[in-house]
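Researcher: Structure prediction, please.
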Amino acid sequence: MMIMKIYKKWQARFLLTVLTTILCSSCAEKKQSTEHESRPNILWIFLEDTAPLLGAYGTTIISTPNIDSLAKQGVVYTNVFMPAPVCSASRSSIITGVMSTTTGAHNHHSSRTKESAIYLPDSLKTIPELFKNAGYFTFNNGKDDYNFMYDRRDLYTQDYRLHPLYGKSGVHLSLDTLKNHQPFFGQIQLKGGKEIFSNTFKDNVKTPVDRSKIVLPPYLPNHPVIVEEYANHLDAIQITDEKVGKIIKDLRDNGLLENTVVFFFSDHGMRLTRNKQFLYDGGLHVPLIVADFTKNINTLTPGTVKEDLVSGLDIGTGSMALANIEIPNYTEGQNMFGDAYKRNYVISTRDRCDFTIDRIRSVRSKEYKYIRNFKTDRPYTQPTYMDFDGIEFVKVMHQLHNAKKLNSVQDIFMSDERPEKELYHLPSDPFELNNLANDSNYDNVLKEYSSVLEDWIIETDDKGQYPEDEENLKLMLGIWGKHAINPEYDTLRKKYPDLEGSLISLKSEPSKLIGTHN
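Model: Predicted structure follows.
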């Protein structure tokens, strides 16, 4: 009898333990599920070469209903400037939250071979890696274009293509598959301004912008070819608008939109004289719209316009903050959504672009832009890829300059000389035309901004102050051959007499598909 009582007592305790375990497990799973569902998806709609010439930014001759709708749902940032005015240097900065000049990834199309490899420090993780480590599913539909070596499996889970010059690019991952992969951090790459390179570009433009209403910035001549280039950019934005509309619709149709924060932005400004590859606002100023469809983020009030000064570095760190991921202390980006967020300056850099070697730095506030040209022996218009790719507006600018048909403002950039220092008062001179660096009334301003730059160079150990490694220059000389005229190539020509132009096929080689999807 006693044994039976003990057995029943033990049995009751056992059942109670089992039930408690099941209940606790269920609660834990429910809590984990709730936490999982409460973490927002972060989606970057990432454009190429696109200026903030949108309805949301005051452009009236363009039709962008889908982007305008995104703006009404979100926050429009009007003072966003990129770390660099060329794709790979800018993207290498954005994806790490660290200036590419800090990591040595600042020269365009570098680290494309084993011999020229540039590695990030082991302690530095990219933004998608940090999301992945936090339990997010990560993907990037389209180009990476990072100037450092990386195992793409560490960043993204999808098949990708590898090109010897243009790097890695993710193969399209359909949004309907993401229903089983939440929360996600994703990038969808759109061509933006590069839509004009498509063979079907003109056919895809449903309502071309009225060319007669184009008003060019004063540094560009009113020539039909220049007007057409500018108008093509606006038409490319209209094509982009349709693609944005499709992305939002796909998110909504698959039940993903209501748990997603969408970032819409470009890697740098539009392709035009004095814009792309240079540190004037035309090369650095980009659109940024952040739309919170979760409606849970107090700092993202729909229909808001913010004039805060923002660096492209802050997009990645801000995204992490929205996902409650701890921002590493090595990042140079800031939480753009934090209560204490405030940038006094944005620093931007330009170094080698393809075969064209240069070094320019800028410090921008809301009031002034300071530009330091380190290689004043080279004209602004030293040869670039655009001179040899048959781009009409480049030819026209040279023709008008040679024929002395440019006015004094338009001809400044075409000069064979350039100053060491440039200073512009932006409220009164938004196109950065009146250089105040030699005006004694601005001596204190010049001193302040030059000190900011000098301190930054020392603090970050700006790698642009050192000669580039030989292997990356060999790659450029091998691809571009006789077009690589900078003196840095002279030594290589003597050392490797058979190298010049021998690698030109790398530009046109097809990408190789690599399967990595799990």
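Model: Residues 2-38 form the longest helix (37 residues).
Researcher: Thanks, that helps.
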